[in-house]
């Protein structure tokens, strides 16, 4: 049997049957990327090493005996994440021959670009446990006297930390005001950067595309890696797809495909061109970063130097593009199932 699907979690009636059915439907998309999968539901997952959780395990293996990467399966993983968000279900990843297990966010960062031949996805049920009482503990904050923070009504006014203490309730205070009245300057800049990028993506959301933003860290590249090997760069990742379950589309003015409609998960360069051009021009005018050479034959380490990178289903493109003129030769009918951008913050 090519795809093993077992829906029974325990011998008694399964309280998670509807969850399993939806997850099974989403997993059918692994067929499209030529990855075999099997689903097991009669297992426990010991996420903390002590208490077993009800678990749905999805085992992946490329059916061509080749490797696959995160980019090959990322659309499907994000759909699983979106479906399970707001529930008591969580996602971990691990390899059959390894005892290392990582939550989704850490896995996407740790194994970005890595070649994988098999993979286990653990979707486990762990209800939130609300504490009965509050325990007094020392709270450590990354602020010291002399630092600059943002305060005021809108938390946008720079203020120097002159005093750090506690009030009568035991809450941390800065300059005799509650800590929550302030925010760190560095964090604020990152939040503002993310807000601006999200704002630039609104046009894509308006035409029905799905845009996910997430933060990621990478080891410093070039010579800095050897001088300060304990440092990492922060990147903002923009991931663009069509929403899960989007219907097939008729595209007036485009060549008619077999069947008369284009697959619902496809979108085209002409649909995102203006937004990507505007984002690129904004980035290089609002930051101090310099683009790399416009050369698709660069070495991998040279590509890694680029502060702004574009990927089509894992394949990098648009090397060194900085403005509208650089994108003019890109064909409007280039199609995508996903388009990923990395912006160095």
Q: What is the C-alpha radius of gyration, as a whole number of Å?
A: 24 Å
Q: What general form does the structure show?
A: globular
Q: How many strands appear in the DSSP assignment?
A: 18
The major pleated sheet works out as: 5 strands, antiparallel
Poorly predicted runs? 1-13, 221-231
User: Largest beta sheet: what is the strand line-up?
Assistant: 1-2-5-3-4
Strand content: 25-35%
Average pLDDT figure: 79
Q: What is the number of helices? A: 8
What is the H/E string?
Answer: HEEHEEHEEEEEEEHHEHEEHHEEEE
Give the proportion of residues in helices: 10-25%
For the terminal residues, how far apart are their CA atoms? 48 Å
What multimeric state do the chains show? single chain
Would you tell me the structural class of the helices and strands? alpha+beta
